[in-house]
């Protein structure tokens, strides 16, 4: 009898545990269906300026409470759209990351409204040793010969910052912004306003350009007057005269004791007991 009661209790406990497990599984499944929606995500890594196609996209379940603004639910809504920023695999595709409808692929798709793209030649020095990468910001400096003022040759050569906080769109033919490894290239493409494009075009034709890398979050502009060669080495410094050269102690300069109207010819200076005598023949 005791064994029978134990068996009955064991069976009852097993049945209750099984029922609880089935109920919990059903409840979890139901909650998952209610709390998630399909969202279009990138199936592969997509570079900026790329025209997307269905093979690059996929749908994934996304928590309903945290679906980002501008997300898409159907892949068909993204036909012929171009991304204006790089996307990683599994990242949701958002309207803010796409170029306007009808935009063609390529670098032109990532240029901000009202801006222009302009390319300048660089080398390993001008290009900040290859650290001027897409997505970084630079200042543009020019070294040139300005118009002569008053015949002062020292003030003719000048170095001056002509553009500040300029976005680097691409280096050579690469516009990807995910790589941080320096790349020494021969050309850099910058994003400029129309007025800045005119300045850069004039600057690269009248002098030598240099790119100055700056902090990405530093947006403060500093107005400078440039620097000339005379200012660089110290303005107003006069060359030393022979009379300013230090003389040995006790050897002070005195007037020559020479005869008036001394005849011209060969002369010999004799120094004796701190006195100089000029003898001419």
List the helices and strands and how they pair.
Elements: H1 2-35, E1 36-42, E2 57-63, E3 116-121, E4 137-145, E5 157-171, E6 187-192, H2 194-206, E7 207-214, E8 227-228, H3 229-232, E9 267-272, E10 275-280
Antiparallel strand pairs: 1-2, 3-6, 4-5, 4-7, 5-6, 5-8, 9-10
Q: What is this entry, summarized?
A:
The protein has three helices and ten strands; from the N terminus they run αββββββαββαββ. The chain is α+β, with helices and mostly antiparallel strands and 281 residues long. The strands form three sheets. Strands 3, 4, 5, 6, 7 and 8 form a six-stranded antiparallel sheet that branches.
Tell me about this structure:
- By secondary structure, the protein is an alpha+beta fold.
- It folds into 3 domains: about 1-110, Antifreeze-like/N-acetylneuraminic acid synthase C-terminal domain (Type Iii Antifreeze Protein Isoform Hplc 12); about 115-230, no CATH class; about 245-280, no CATH class.
- The chain has helices at about 1-35, 195-205, 230, and strands at about 35-40, 55-65, 115-120, 135-145, 155-170, 185-190, 205-215, 225-230, 265-270, 275-280.
- The strands form 3 sheets. Strands 3, 4, 5, 6, 7 and 8 form a 6-stranded antiparallel β-sheet that branches. The chain has a two-stranded antiparallel ribbon with strand order 1-2. A two-stranded antiparallel ribbon has the order 9-10.
- A hairpin with a 2-residue loop joins strand 9 (about 265-270) and strand 10 (about 275-280).
- The longest helix is centred in the N-terminal third of the chain and has 34 residues, at about 1-35.
- The protein is elongated, with a radius of gyration of 40 Å.
- It starts with a helix and ends with a strand.
């Amino acid at each position: 009898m005791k064994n029978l009661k134990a068996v009955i209790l064991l069976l009852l406990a097993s049945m209750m545990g099984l029922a609880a497990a089935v109920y919990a599984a059903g409840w979890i499944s139901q909650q998952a269906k209610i709390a998630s929606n399909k969202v279009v995500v990138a199936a592969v890594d997509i570079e900026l300026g790329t025209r997307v196609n269905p093979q690059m996209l996929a749908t994934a379940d996304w928590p309903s409470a945290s679906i980002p603004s501008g997300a898409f639910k159907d892949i068909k809504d993204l036909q012929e759209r171009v991304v204006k920023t790089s996307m990683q695999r599994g990242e949701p595709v958002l309207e803010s990351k796409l170029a306007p409808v009808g935009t063609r692929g390529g670098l032109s798709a990532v240029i901000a409204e009202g801006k222009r793209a302009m390319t300048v030649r660089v080398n390993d020095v001008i290009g900040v040793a290859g650290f001027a990468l897409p997505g970084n910001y630079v200042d543009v400096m020019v070294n040139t010969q300005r118009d002569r003022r008053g015949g002062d040759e020292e003030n003719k050569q000048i170095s001056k910052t002509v553009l500040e906080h300029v976005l680097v769109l691409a280096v050579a033919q690469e516009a990807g912004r995910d790589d941080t490894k320096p790349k020494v290239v021969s050309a850099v493409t910058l994003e400029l306003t129309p007025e800045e494009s005119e300045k850069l075009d004039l600057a690269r034709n009248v002098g030598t350009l240099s790119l100055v890398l700056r902090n990405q979050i530093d947006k403060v502009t500093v107005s400078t007057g440039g620097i000339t060669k005379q200012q660089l080495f110290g303005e107003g410094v006069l060359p030393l005269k022979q009379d300013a050269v230090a003389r040995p102690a006790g050897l002070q300069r005195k007037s020559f004791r020479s005869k008036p109207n001394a005849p011209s010819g060969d002369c010999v200076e004799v120094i004796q007991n701190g006195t100089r005598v000029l003898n001419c023949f």
